[in-house]
Write a structure and sequence with these properties.
Layout lengths: L2 E2 L5 H10 L6 H11 L13 H10 E2 L4 E7 L5 E6 L5 E8 L5 E4 L3 E3 L14 E4 L2 H16 L10 E4 L9 H14 L7 E5 L3 H9 L5 E5 L5 H7 L2 H4 L2 H16 L3 E7 L7 H13 L7 E7 L13 H15 L2 E4 L13 H15 L1
Parallel strand pairs: 1-2, 6-9, 9-10, 10-11, 11-12, 12-13, 13-14
Antiparallel strand pairs: 3-4, 4-5, 5-6, 7-8
Helix pairs in contact: 1-2, 4-5, 6-9, 10-11
Length: 361
Amino acid sequence: MKVNLQTIEKPELKTLLVSWGEKAFRADQIMNWIRVNGAMDFDEMSNLPKGLLRKLKDNAVLGSLEVAEEQLSKDGTIKRLYRLWDGQLIESVLMPYEDGRVTACISSQAGCAMGCVFCATGQMGFARQLTADEIFEQVARFATDIKSGEDKSRRLSNVVMMGMGEPLGNYRNLMAAIARMNGELGIGARKITVSTVGVVPNIRKLIDHPIQVRLAVSLHCAEDKERSELMPANKMYGGLSELMSAVREYTEKTKRRMTFEWALIEGKNDTPEVARQLGNLIKKHGIPNYLVHVNVIPLNPTGGFAGGPSRKGRVGAFAKTLNDEFGVSCTPRMRRGIDIDAGCGQLKSSVKKNEDKVAII
């Protein structure tokens, strides 16, 4: 198996090069080409000896994730479908914003076991955990791509663990990958957001973790019955009472602002009355309103769920209720890549359907 230079750590690379009869400092040069210059080809590494270049071409690769499909939105969003070594498919998204931020949305699992009925990935079921290297490489590849562009001042500024899978269901590999994003790619801990449906034990682990990432909770409902219907994992972790208690502990101990994610489904969870339920839920559990932000976004429709996205007026009324009546910051999230399969799991579903048709033929 060839060495993956996107994921190998520098001390290990130095040891490898010395075993090849090369100088250890060549590792710094190689990493500089990849991390700083965004090299995508060994021939770009012009200060390396020809003999070393031959060894690298024979024994190493600049990434192990195979791009199975890529889509580019008119707003600049890039959606990638990667094929892994065992044939599993995962998605990553790169989103540039007008204010200069460049955010990567990253997968943590192949498939998902949480079973959220409105989510394309949840409808697929769970295949396996991603390794720390597979999580890290998604980020490293985007960072390299940006560096290889014409504007050398651009950099990957933010990472959101909101792609395929439940990040806190793969806690050990997730945090190992985040440590490398922070230490090797220079992405600040407060620029990394970990999303969860509510894996309560691991929310509590985040409280004391030395890397102080941001927490986002996919909430979507303010009553247990409705939430369990949409998100079966609600019952698994003790319902809203346990989840909100963990969120209160998180805000009390870390003093960090957290986010509730709320997918607005027309006629289901998008009324001012439901917004009041949410405001009262936050108040009931003693979570300071200044340490909470609610991110609302109209649902990304999927073939496996009958609900549709809320209209603009309903989105505004929901946000206004939380802002005005409860002092809870609530803003509609900008939808990115709406002209492509940018919603979580949508590109994989599309590609799999096409592959299945070909297989039948």
